[in-house]
Structures are given as C-alpha cells and as structure tokens.
Amino acid sequence: MIWFLLALHTVVVVAIAVVGRRLARGALWLAAVPMAVTAVWSATRVGSSDAITAGFQWVPGLDVAIEFRVDAMSSLLSLLVSGIGALVCVYAYGYFSPGATSIGRFAATLLAFSTAMVGLVWANSVWTLFIFWELTSITSFLLVGFKHADPVARTAARRALVITAAGGLSLLAGFVLFVDAAGTALLSEITPITGSTANAAAILILVAAATKSAQFPFHVWLPGAMAAPTPVSAYLHSATMVKAGVILVAVIAPAFQDTDIWKPLGLSFGLVTMVWGAVGALRHVDAKLILAWGTVSQLGLLITLLAVGTPKATFAAISILVAHAVFKAALFMVVGEVDVRTGTRNINELSGLRRSMPVTFVVAVLSGASMAGIPPLLGFPAKEAAIEAALGLSGGEFLVVGGLIIGGSVLTVAYTTRLLIGMFGSSEPMVDRDVTPRRPAMSGPEVILAGASLLGFVALGWVTGIVRPAVVTVSPKAEVYSLLRWPGLTDAFVTSAVVVAIGLVIGALLARRHVVSGPVARGAANVDWIIDGVGRVARQVAARVQHGSLPLYLATTVLVVCAAAVPFVGQIDADTLYWWDNRAEAVLVLMIVAAAVSATQVSSRLGAALVLGGVGFSVAGLFVAHGAPDLVLTQLLVETVIVVGFVVGLGRLATSFPTPTRLWTAGRVVIAGAMGTAVAVALAGSAGTPVGEAPVRELARTAQDDGGGKNVVNVILTDTRALDTFGEVIVLMVVAVGILTLSTKRGRGKVTR
Amino acid sequence: MIARTSPIVSLAVRAVTPIALVAAAYVLFAGHNQPGGGFAAGLMLGAVIVLRTVAGLQQPKYASVWLSVGGVIAGVVAIAPMFWGEPMLDQVVVSWDVPLLGTVKTGSALLFDLGVVAIVVGLVLALLDGLDATSLVDRGRAASPDERSDRGARA
User: Fold this and answer.
1) Are residue A533 and residue A556 in the same domain, yes or no?
2) Scanning every residue of chain B, which has its alpha carbon at the shortest distance from the alpha carbon of A628?
3) ipTM for this prediction
4) SS3 of A116, please?
C-alpha cells in the first residue's frame, strides 16, 4: 500500500505536468485525489500500534536503504499532510480566478511537494528521510517562487532555498555522524547515544531542523515566503514544510536525549524563536505576515517542548502540532479569502468584515480561539497539556522555560486578538461593494477545518486515542497522559485562564493603537546581502579566471601539463630508449616536424590549416607503421573533418595572421617548446617503467569470449571499457549542447559581425 | 552557393554521398572484427555532412534531434542490463542465419555504436550550426553576382 500510494502520487504529478495546461483549474481536483486517498488510508491506520513497513536495499555496500514505516506517528502525520493537502487543493480552486494561468504547474508542484512530505513522514531510514527532506526544500522553492515574474517572490524563494538547503547539508553531515555513532540508520531501532560524535551529530541535526522549522536566526525565510499564493502558505506553514524540522526533532530525540548539547541548544532555539516570533506577530500590519510570525512563534514552542523532552512535554508538543496544523491552515485560508474578496490584507484598511463575511468570520473566530487556547476547541486541551508540562518543571528550568512558555502563550492570545479585531472588528463595516461574492470552494475547506477544531474538542477521546499511540512511539512513558476537556480547577487551568485574560487585554489595547506599517525585514535583507555578495565575489573571481583570452588559456594548460611531467624526469632510463622500430618512422617524424615548423611560418590562415592537416596525416602514417589500423582510420577521419571544418570556420577570420610582435613570438616559442618537452619527457619516463605483462594479451584473450568480437580495440571500446566510452560520449553531447546554446544566442542577437 | 557556381563540386558531392553512406554502414558493422566502429562511421557521415553543407546542398539542422536520439540509445543500452541484474553496459551477443550472408553475429554493442554514430553526427551538425556555416555559404552566394559582373566587365 505504501508503494501504491507513492506511485499514485508520482503518476498523477507526471500526468498533471503533461496535460495540466489543458485542465486549467481542474488540475487541482486531480491533484487532490492522491492526497485524499492517502488521507483516508492514513485515517484507517491512526492509533493502531502495529506498523507497516516497505523498503529495499538501495546501495547495499554502504548500507543505504529506502525504508518506509507507517506506525501510529507517521500515519497521524500523513493524515494531517494529505488531509490538509486535499483541502488546500479545493481551496486553491476557489482562490485562483478562472482565467488564472499556470494552474497545471501549480497543481503538479503542490502534489510533488505533498509526495515529498508524505515520503518524509513515512521514512524509517535516515537516508530515506534525507532524500525526501531535500525534495521538500526544492519543491517548496518552486511553490514560494510560483509567481516567478515577481522579483520579490523570486528573492524570497531563493532565500528559502539557500537557508533550507544549507540545513540539508548540515542534516547530511549530522546523519553520517549519527549512523556512525548509533550503528543503525533505522529510526525504529534508535537507542540513546552519547559521546563527542553524538554531540556533533546533535548540533548538526538540530541546526538542520532549525533551518527547516524557521527557528531564530534561520526564521527569516518564513515571512518572506508569504510572497507565495496563499494556498501555498496555508499548506507549507501549517501542516507540512515547517513541521518537517519539528517531526525530525521528535522522532530522533530519543537518540540524543542523553547528550549534553541536545537540550540546551534545542531550548535556546525554541525559546528565542517563540518570543521573537510572537513579538514579530504583534508588530506587523499585514494579516498574512502576522500569521507567519505567529507560526514562527508556535514552531519555537514546539521545539521548546520537544527539547524539554519529558514525556508530558512531548505529549503536549504532538498535541499542539496536530491542533496547530488544523487551525493555522484555516487561518491562512481566511486571510487568503479576505485578500481575494477585499483586495487587501492590511489590518489598518480592513474593518467590520464580520457583517460582510459572516462565514469567514465564524471560521476565523473558531480557529483563532483554538490558537489562543480557549475552550471549546482543540487548541485548549493541547495548550493545557503544554502549560501543565511547563508547570511540572522544577528549579531554574521552571523559571526560565516555564516562564517563557507562559509568557509566550500570553503573547499568542494577544496577537490572535489583535488580528481578529483588526480584520473583523471596528464599528464602520466595509461596504458590500468593497467585498466580492463568496466563493464556495474557499469557504468549504475553511468550514471543514474550523469544524475539525471544534469536533476535535467534542470528540477529545478519539483525538487522545490517535495522539497518544503516536507519542508513545517516541516517548513510551507518555501512555499515561490524556487530553482533558475539563481538567478541573488545577494550577494549569488557573494559569491559562489568567494567560487568556491578560492576552485579551493586551491584544485589544494593541488593536486600538494605529501602526502605520510593519517593521522592515532586516534579517532577510542581511541574508540577501550575503547571497548577493557571494554572487558578486564569484562573478569577480570568474572574470579574473575566465578572462576569455585563448592564448592565456592555452598557456595555463601547457604550464599545468609541464608541471605534471616533472615527476617523470627521474624515471627516464636511457637504456630503454632507441631511435626507431623501422626507418619509415624516421621519415614520417621528419615530415611531422617539417609540417609543424612550416605551420608557424605560413602567413595565411588557410595555409596554416592545411599544413596542420599535414601533421595529422603524417601522424596517421606513424600509426600505420606501428600496425594500428583502428587509430589510422579514426585519425584520418578526424583530420579530414577538422581540415574541412577549419576551411568553413576560417571564412569568419581575416585571411592572414596579424603581424606578431617580438615578445609574442618569443612567448609562443617558449610555450610550444615547453609542451613538446613535457610530452616527450612523460613518454620517455613511462617507457622506462613497464609494469608486468602488457594488458593487451589478456584483453586479446578475453575479447573473443566476452565481447564476441575479433577487433580488440573495439571490444575494449564497446564492452570491456564501455563505461569509459559512455562517459566520452556524454562529454561529446555536452560539448554539442554547449555549441548549440552559444550559437542560438548569437543567432537571436543578430550581431554576427 | 558553391553548388550553384560550381557544378563540379555539386556533382562530386552528390556522387560521393551514397558511397560514403554505404562505407559508413560498412565501417559500423565491420567494427566488431575489423577496423571501424561507431566513432569512425559517425565521422564519415559527419564528413559528408560538412561537404554537403559547404556545397550548399543542405543546412545543418536537427543537431539536437541526433544528439538526443543518440544519447537515449546509448543510455538505454547502458542501463538496460541492470534490469536483469547484470552489470551496467553488459554485452548481449546474438547470432542468427541470414540467407545469402550466412551466419550474422551481432550484439548490443552494435546498438551502442549506433548511439555513438548519432551523437558524433549531432556534434558535427552542432559545430556547423555554431560556425554558422550556412551564412558563410550564403555570403559566397551574395558575392557571386559581383564576381560575375566583374568577369563580364573584363570580357
């Protein structure tokens, strides 16, 4: 079933890529099919304790395998990924206007991203996980840069790619160290590891997770990624992309729990991100950016809880992960709908939408309340679990971690309140003509997701039933915990009541304050400055090295060859050298030398080309003298084509060579002499040290039997060493493609002369 | 165009073309047991193409088609054995009896060589295209009326 679903995804991606243009928005429905099927299958698997596996050895020598394992955790995650994915497809159908272009490309990329994400959550081998991790980076780059005509989107996409791809490199290094220390690449066989290798692996993997899950200071790509169409944001920044890092930390945490570095580093990432993200959410006026910064903050909370690592905290983290996926997707959808129907996302310009967009308003309030942790919504018991976990800490950890988690929760309530009041509050409603009609394809998914937040609270026992087995896979002691609808008047409940109250007040106060525009994204600008700087330096270096002067290139090459010939000097054995095998060689060599020397003396280019051809034909004669008919044939043909080619090409140049200066001539004499000497020395040196029996005898023996041919040279070319030939053929192709590309450009420019 | 100004060149190139094609085919098939092979056959075809282009009988087109076809053939031959668990580029030798010719023995190496032929031809076409050989030939044609009028003036 695992193979079937992954194949289904892939086939549909290809199908949409091929015929998507004709389907227009219908491609989105097609893309929703594999996601829906996966979601339904995952739904039948959630909560069950047995696991389904699939896999094969990929590189047996390196113990690199493609391994999938669908257990309680991965089926819960794929339910979120695919379920929300299918809803996003439907939502996108409403989001894009009927005439929108490139919807096929969008649908194919979205589904490809979803495939990568499903592969990632199902992966059991770290190598499999790594491959899908990188695939999510690439496909999300394409999604963020979907509006590729917009420079802002392009820059944002590039920023996201560079940061997450750098994290990918860190992840690869971390996995190599991890496998070395743990002795297994399978996530299901993880045991706690310690030591310096484990510490290094912990740092690398945490940094990778931090880049993906937008932890401070790597978070700068996430707000920029809001340049993507809103369905992309609703998908990437709720259930998928940014959760990849959190999921990685969750599943690999059991291995690093005992290392010295894991917890402090994870906590620093998480706590700083949580607070900084919430502050950012309070400063912005673009509703989508508020949500983006809110996401950063929530991710910080998740990483914090996972880094704390107690069973209770892990349980709370996974619960919040589920709740967050549901409410954040709905909120992004709400903002997207507001944007589409009113033409703005600025909370200063929006007002009173509760009357003109009642359905959206209800969805926003339910989802927002879930985000703030207010009953009766799924976010409430999840947040309760988190606060309870925070209160369960002791000593300094309680003060710092617990304090910041509670503080962060206050800020979460505050920015949620500010966002909702900003969009839907105020006494003067936007008039109806400011708001275009409702689109059912947009409202549908929103209502389903808001309903899920509500139903999740009503059917809390079922939610506990699927979350708890998932948590148990990474933290076995968590099986005693449940999500509670009514915890009673515990410390945690009182705390969260206070949190909500303070948050509401702060949010309401801040909503009254008129902020003209949000803060400048200084971090993102710095990242862009670095990326551009690397590009500038690279261009300068390339301009130095790739100067375009053919004589200088040639001189450089010759100098390198001469240096390579130096070691052969010592190996020359005068006894092995003799003048010739037969006298014909002497004559041919004289011809070659004569032709080569006269080539330097001829003043017309055409003459030089012909004389050079004479050199080539004489060399072919040398091959005849040595009894190598294959070489003769090839050499003659190559020379023929080259001479004719020269004649064709010379039409572009002046008929005579320019008059050389004295320095120019001297330089050429030196370079030519050096090259000749270097080749002669290398040949003489290698002739002095023959090693063992000449391989030709063995090759001649096997040629007939293995290759089925009598011509040893060709059996070598097409069988014994066919891989070399294949490589050479590819080089030929690359050269040809290069020529075609360059010549096409020139043809377009029409500046031939 | 040289072909227009010089019927000798045109005729010679036309006459050589089929001979060179047969020769190239021979070299390709002979390559297994005698000198020859895909690279040599490709160069022969390439030489013919260069001549025909210079003579203005054809234009260097479809370089990318030749390249991609050749690349696909060589790539398929290279990878196909791996599906049967054999090493990459493993040879399959087949021989069958053909009337008149007797036993013909050949193998996947011949297919591989065909790919090489196509790539070499593609490379030659790409070179001619890159050198903009057609425009050179056209320039010759553009010059020719003047030459003719020169000659007329002299006469």
Assistant:
1) no
2) B35
3) 0.80
4) helix
